[in-house]
Design brief:
The complex is a heterodimer of chains A (230) and B (224). By secondary structure, chain A is α+β, with helices and mostly antiparallel strands. The longest helix of chain A has 32 residues. Chain A has one domain: NADH Oxidase (3-Layer(aba) Sandwich). In chain A, 44% of the residues are buried. In chain A, strands 1-2-6-10-7 form a five-stranded antiparallel sheet. A three-stranded antiparallel sheet of chain A has the order 3-4-5. A two-stranded antiparallel sheet of chain A has the order 8-9. Helix content of chain A is 32%, strand content 22%. With 224 residues, chain B is an alpha/beta fold. Chain B has nine helices and five strands; from the N terminus they run ααααβαβαβαβαβα. In chain B, helix 1 runs antiparallel to helix 2 and helix 3 runs antiparallel to helix 4. The chains are: A alpha+beta (230), B alpha/beta (224). Chains A and B meet through helix 2, helix 4 and helix 5 of A and helix 4 and helix 5 of B.
Chain lengths: 230, 224
């Protein structure tokens, strides 16, 4: 019922940050041993043939945020987001909700590799998948920004259930805005997405909303991949 | 220590699996844990001596480096892979009863959760440290743990979760296990967990990294 957009970006269009992968592996200064770097680069090349990126978004013209209550309302659906999310969205008048995935084959690749006796490769593939999923989120965010700018609007940063104090269970509400199996993504009862390496979230839209960086200093979740305090 | 046992311990610590393995680059072209273990057995070194005086020493060294922040998960994983290559040669001695594994450990990711990398890492490290790990996979319901415990009544249990929604299932699973087997030790792990959460759900321990957990189990085994 809402205007929706679906894309299948090419792998080469994604801006994958190898430094993020290396940092997640435990080498924050990018000082990865040569042997591991070689494995990473080989897996990266192989990933090109396995990843099948899909992403898309829906535009919901009605939206508001109550920073005092820590809630965001989109198309009549109230999200209990926490103030970390509702605060930077207080000037929103509409919203884009997005989904993206690296594809189902990738999940299988990681699992099979780990269990076939190559745990290091399985582990690196898992990290690689997370970064590719994040780059797909970046790609679809760019598309949403373009859509907004073509319509004389601006966009907020993107926010996902499971981060910034927003319960992952609220992802169920996000999925209700999309047709079933949009981009080949489904949601389990536990709010885990299948394929596993998928992303979802919201972006506030209005003529005067501002993009703000994540307020990591206000959050105590140390295991968050976006956490700049760790 | 015998030279070959020293070399084997180093192969484990550095993650040199076998002659063909390209890692670590400075040991390229040299034999690894696979060939060294075979050679040690051929030279008449007792299997339990290979395990205790070499393999465990290598695993211990890489584990200590991990705790000190001088090694990372990839180093632990490749060491565990080398350890498993060595353990394959010792398997017949375990099967014949000549050697004993440390015990049974049932592991799985909690119902509703498909994240299994963390659980797999713990499995690798525990297997490498001489435990018989029964991996139930991911999305494991409480009944499956209880059913498996019937087959391995002295086993300890490890439950993993990565979502705040699924970690709540851990309480249900822990209670289900304790209800049928109150003395079974249940341990929990996963990024969003904490010691406070472990205490709240009545589990027996939360460990943020596999090496600390492996050391804890080794101490527990010594006390029992």
């Amino acid at each position: 019922m809402y205007q929706s957009f679906h894309y299948s970006p090419k792998f080469d269009e994604l801006k994958i940050r190898m430094k993020n992968i290396i940092a997640t592996m435990g080498y924050p200064a990018g000082d990865i041993p040569d042997g591991y770097n070689q494995i990473l680069m080989e897996l990266f090349e192989k990933a090109k043939g396995i990843v099948s990126p899909q992403c898309g978004f829906v535009i919901v013209p009605q939206g508001s945020s109550s920073s005092s209550n820590g809630t965001v309302t989109i198309g009549g659906v109230k999200f209990k987001t926490d103030k970390i999310v509702s605060s930077p969205l207080k000037k929103m008048s509409g919203s884009a909700l997005f989904l993206g995935t690296v594809g189902a084959e990738f999940d299988e690749w990681s699992k099979v590799t780990f269990n076939a006796g190559d745990p290091l490769a399985g582990y690196i593939i898992d990290i690689l998948g997370s970064e590719i999923a994040e780059s797909i989120a970046d790609w679809v965010t760019d598309k949403i920004n373009l859509y907004a700018s073509e319509n004389g609007m601006k966009c907020s940063n993107r926010y996902s259930a499971g981060y910034c104090g927003w319960s992952v269970a609220e992802q169920q509400k996000i999925f209700k805005f999309f047709p079933e199996n949009f981009c080949g993504i489904s949601l389990m009862e536990s709010s885990l997405m299948k394929p596993h390496k998928s992303v979802s979230g919201i972006i506030g839209i209005s003529s005067d909303i501002k993009w703000k960086d994540y307020p990591c200093e206000a959050c105590n979740v140390n295991h968050c991949y976006k956490n700049r305090n760790v | 220590m015998d030279i070959i046992l020293e070399k084997l311990a180093l192969a484990i610590e550095r993650g040199k699996v076998n002659l063909d393995s390209p890692y670590p680059p400075d040991l390229k072209g040299e034999i690894g844990a696979d060939e060294l273990t075979k050679k040690a057995l051929e030279e008449g070194i007792a299997p339990d001596s290979i395990l205790n005086n070499s393999l465990m020493i290598g695993m211990g060294k890489i584990g200590d480096k991990f705790e000190e922040g001088k090694a990372f998960i990839p180093d632990m994983l490749i060491a565990a892979k080398a350890m498993n290559a060595a353990m394959a040669h010792l398997k017949p001695y375990f099967e014949s009863g000549e050697m004993e594994l440390k015990g049974d450990f049932i592991i799985g990711t909690v119902a509703g959760d498909l994240h299994d990398i963390g659980k797999n890492i713990v499995r690798m490290v525990l297997t490498g440290n001489g435990w018989n790990v029964i991996d139930l996979g991911s999305d494991v319901k409480a009944e499956k743990y209880v059913e498996t415990l019937k087959k391995y009544p002295n086993a300890m249990v490890g439950i993993s979760a990565l979502l705040t929604t699924t970690m709540m299932q851990m309480e249900f699973t822990t209670k289900a296990i304790k209800e049928v087997s109150p003395d079974t030790k249940v341990f929990v792990g996963g990024a969003p967990l904490s010691k406070e959460f472990n205490d709240k759900i009545g589990a027996d321990g939360y460990f943020p990294d596999p090496n600390k957990f492996s050391k804890f189990l080794a101490n527990l085994e010594m006390m029992e």
